[in-house]
Amino acid sequence: MLPQVDRYYVSTTSALAEVENRILKEGDTFAILDRFGDLCSVGKDELGIYHRGTRYLSELKFRIGRNERPLLLNSTLRSDNGLLRVELTNPDMKFGRQGLIKKGTLHIRRDKFLYNSCCYDSFTVFNYGETDLEIPARFYFGADYRDIFEVRGTKRQQRGELLEPTIDDNKICLFYRGLDLVERRTRLHYNFAPSATRGGEVHFNIRVSPQGVCRFHFNAQFLEAGENRLEVAAEEGQKRVKGSYLRGRAHFSHVRSSNEHFNQWVERSTSDLVMLATETATKDLYPYAGIPWYCCPFGRDGIWTALECLWADPLLAKGVLRFLAHTQAKDHSPERDSAPGKIFHEMRTGEMAALNEIPFGLYYGSVDTTPLFLYLAGKYHERTGDLETIRELWPNLELALTWINTHGDRDGDGFVEYQRETERGLAQQGWKDSHDSVFHADGSDAVGPIALCEVQGYVYAGKLAMANLAACLNKKELSERLRQEAKELRTRFHEAFWLPELNTYAIALDGKKQACRVNSSNAGHCLLMGIVPEDCAPLLVETLMNKRLFSGWGIRTLATDSPRYNPMSYHNGSVWPHDTTIVAMGIARAGHKKSVEQVFEAVFHASKH
């Protein structure tokens, strides 16, 4: 039998750890730069500046002298992720009548940041020599306007048209007209007099007196047809970026300890989360899933981020709930794996999404986001007592509950299952959504519809959450009915999924209701949801903490004695911090504090590396 092919596999030719890229993000714009602040994109390299799912700048290189790269002294992201500062100097250079300019004569400071769909690139050059210097310099630039799915390896039959650039005294505009008939523009603006402009190059001279300073910039603005934004001064842009960070940071609880490394860990995590939190159509903040390939809203990722930050910033959960309600499915669409009441999986912008070359413009192919939506609403109310928001969301919560009991339970057996409706959709629709993540003990693929163990836990907890919310809204009959449904699900679940020989739950039931007798981290999610009977919880904790699953750094996604185990795989043996955290929270709920301490210490030590 031939292996399944993952059509949305991210093609990889180099490890991110090798290149030490620098990342900036603001709104729907993000940049992946090398340590010099340059873009030297080659082939499938992900370097670039992306805006709304498209790479608007694929090349940007700064060179001096006879086309030489400056020497790198230091490259640092500010602690709030708002500014990249690169310290450079000149190599030994000899040209023209100036003779030898010794290495280290010039100090070049380069500051880069993003604001309002613009990349600000400012240079300050110090001359520590004893003579006037006039140094040739140049910028190389280019824009391929590739959709992010193209950059990550998806092939296209056709592309749009690169239009002829326009050049003014201090401005260059690059154009691309997509097959979606949207014209995308990259507007390059600089404040020096160029000596030559040709192709993808701008030549100029840096003039600086002894002990003097020279300043110039080379900014890039990203626009779609009809847009025309004012470019504010760099100093004002930096103030606004800093102010935005401080406003986002103000919502978070401040945590300090006597351990400085722990403090750095927490601060870095907070800064990264504030960077990823992006304003949505509901004017709330939503945590995007990750840079580069997932810099957009994902339903599951947003919910888990909100849940794990609920103690520190409940306002984030409110924003997630409101945006998920705003985008809840209203109709049935096989192409998008949607049905009324379902919560979305992924929401993309860009040319390929607009043309439906990929189904992810607004895609609903995840089985777990809908019950987790209910669970988050219950936890949010429990944390805040904000019944007004619950009243606002109640019609959406009821629709989600209806989906669980109808479309979610395809065969009426009381379990929520999934099976993609077209070949273009995701084959696996739980959190482990790689094509090879659900299988039997002999290594054979599970054939759907598939009922995942953790999803039944989410449904159980979601119904209990809805029962509590219904009681608060004086809907007593509904509250009692949901409690009874949850109780019955708990009994059926344990009977169908428990594997006494492994002391864990089967990762899933296949379409024939045959258990996938595989030892995985999925069962740990069930602990957190409370669906595990009290007498079985200690047995499951022992299984999760056994060396087959606990690596010493975290909980493996798959036990080492499983047929598809591979510690370098996406979901079949690798360690995921969020998965480890969910399992640890479940172990804590079961009262096994020593094991929680062991997992926490493991993750803490991993953070040092």
Outline of the structure:
By secondary structure, the chain is α+β, with helices and mostly antiparallel strands. The chain contains 15 helices and 26 strands.
Question: How do the helices and strands line up, and which of them pair or pack?
Answer:
Elements: H1 16-19, E1 22-26, E2 29-33, E3 39-40, E4 48-51, E5 54-57, E6 59-64, E7 71-77, E8 84-89, E9 93-94, E10 100-101, E11 106-115, E12 118-127, E13 133-142, H2 148-151, E14 161-167, E15 171-177, E16 183-190, E17 196-198, E18 201-208, E19 213-224, H3 234-250, H4 260-276, E20 277-279, E21 285-287, H5 299-308, H6 314-326, H7 351-354, H8 369-384, H9 387-405, E22 451-452, H10 453-472, H11 476-497, E23 498-499, E24 504-505, E25 508-509, E26 515-516, H12 522-529, H13 537-545, H14 577-589, H15 593-607
Q: What is the strand content?
A: 15-25%
**What is the percent of helical residues?**
25-40%
As a whole number of angstroms, the C-alpha radius of gyration is 27 Å
Structural class: alpha+beta
Mean pLDDT: 94
Major sheet: 8 strands, antiparallel
Verbal overview:
It is a single chain. The protein has 609 residues and is an alpha+beta fold. Helices cover 31% and strands 22% of the residues. The chain contains 15 helices and 26 strands. The strands form 7 sheets. The chain has an 8-stranded antiparallel sheet, covered by helices on one side. It has a 5-stranded antiparallel sheet with strand order 3-6-13-18-17, with no helix packed on it. Strands 1-2-4-5 form a 4-stranded antiparallel sheet, with no helix packed on it. Strand 11 and strand 12 form a beta hairpin. Helix 5 packs parallel to helix 8 and helix 10 packs antiparallel against helix 11. The longest helix has 22 residues. It starts with 15 loop residues before the first helix and ends with a helix. The relative contact order is 0.07.
